[in-house]
Design goal:
By secondary structure, the protein is of the alpha+beta class. It contains eight helices and 18 strands. The chain has two domains: 163 residues, Aminotransferase class 4, branched-chain amino acid transferase, N-terminal domain (D-amino Acid Aminotransferase, Chain A, domain 1); 167 residues, D-amino Acid Aminotransferase, Chain A, domain 2 (Alpha-Beta Barrel), CATH 3.20.10.10.
Length: 356
């Protein structure tokens, strides 16, 4: 599909950031956005790149009432030699369409998803920061815009992409987080929407996150929604436990998000000689193995922070420090290798990097 590029008038040009260390996460956006519309009976129409601006939405439109919405998250990196690279964007395209199917939204052709992102990133390349740990965060989103109060799939959608220059997640160094194991609320159940990247999952997780923050924890670790025994994932990260040379993570059984970083960690860890074990693990086993010292490290994986070291887990008021509470060797190695591949300082033997 042809993508029209609309002019960017002088008044739509923003003041660029001056200090890359002060970017934070998702707080500023670039000058332009990509948008395409899907209309029942017509399919995808009017793909365009236009000045970044607020939408004018009918107050009745479906996304505002029944949350028919999905999104993705990926990053573009600016290498030392000026190369601009995306990390496994075709995986985001595929996952977006799995989410779309679950939420009854139209499939976005992979070609449209990727070319929309690539064209936009090329045009906005001056916004990509380049100092260590920084990147351009890319947020593809689809929303239902038909103005009607009946509960049904919309007959009109916007698929749009916005870009946000983001700072180093670990500006103050690689800091282990403290995680509370959630025993009151659940995130997902088999047959639910846990595997889809949809806003509703996040809305329903806010309360647990807030209560954990009040108790001094950074995030919650979700248990399975039926037996409340098996470890699932954390906020927007998949969770890993290392037993020396073996790493364990929850299997993709429909209620956790199929993380692209998770998938990359599994490939990388095997490649580095670790055994990877996708298995249902009881929280009681995890706590016993932390106490006995057989769990040596724990970390989360996700696009925003890439790898997040976990220093302690707390379950029903019992606090369990993992290892020495610091950053383990494997955690550090995986972080360095993944970010090295993403930023071009380590050769990509996996075919993950897509240069623009
Ligand atoms: C996005 C997300 C992740 C991480 O996925 P990546 O593809 O690695 O960024 C994990 N869990 C949830 C619930 C998510 O929404």
């Amino acid at each position: 599909m042809n993508i029209r590029v609309l002019p960017l008038p002088e008044e739509s040009r923003k003041q660029k950031y001056t200090d890359e260390t002060q970017l934070g996460f998702g707080k500023i956006f670039t000058d332009r956005m990509f948008i395409a519309e899907w209309k029942s009976g017509q399919g995808w129409v009017d793909a365009r790149i236009e000045p970044y601006a607020p939408f004018s939405l009918d107050p009745a439109c479906l996304v505002l009432h029944y949350a028919q919405e999905i999104f993705e998250g990926l990053k573009a990196y600016k290498w030392k030699d000026g190369t601009i690279a995306l990390f496994r964007p075709e995986m985001n395209a595929r996952r977006f369409n799995l989410s779309a199917d679950r939420i009854c939204m139209p499939e976005v052709p992979e070609e449209l998803f990727l070319s929309g992102i690539e064209e936009l990133v090329r045009l906005e390349r001056d916004w990509i920061p380049s100092s260590a740990g920084t990147s351009l965060y890319i947020r593809p989103t689809m929303i239902a815009v038909e103005p009607v109060l009946g509960v049904k799939p919309s007959d009109h959608f916007y698929f749009y992409v916005i870009l946000s220059p983001v700072g180093a997640y670990y500006a103050g160094g690689f800091n282990p987080v403290k995680i509370m194991v959630e025993d009151k609320y659940v995130r997902a159940v088999p047959g639910g929407t846990g595997e889809a990247k949809t806003g509703g999952n996040y809305a329903s997780s806010l309360k647990a996150g807030l209560e954990a923050k009040k108790k001094g924890f950074d995030q919650v670790l979700w248990l399975d929604g039926v037996e409340r025994r098996y470890i699932e994932e954390v906020g927007a990260m998949n969770m890993f436990f290392a037993y020396g040379n073996r790493i364990v993570t929850a299997p993709l059984d429909g209620s956790i998000l199929n993380g692209i970083t998770r998938n990359s960690v599994l490939s990388l860890a095997s490649d580095l000689g670790f055994t990877v074990d996708e298995r249902k693990t009881d929280i009681a086993t995890i706590l016993a193995d932390i106490r006995s010292g057989s769990i040596t490290e724990a970390f989360g994986s996700g696009t925003a922070a890439v790898i997040t070291p976990v220093g302690a887990l707390c379950f029903k008021d019992e606090n369990c420090q993992i290892g020495n509470g610091g950053v383990g060797n494997l955690t550090q190695k995986l972080y360095d290798t993944l970010t090295g591949i993403q930023t071009g300082s380590i050769p990509d033997r996996f075919g993950w990097v897509k240069k623009l």
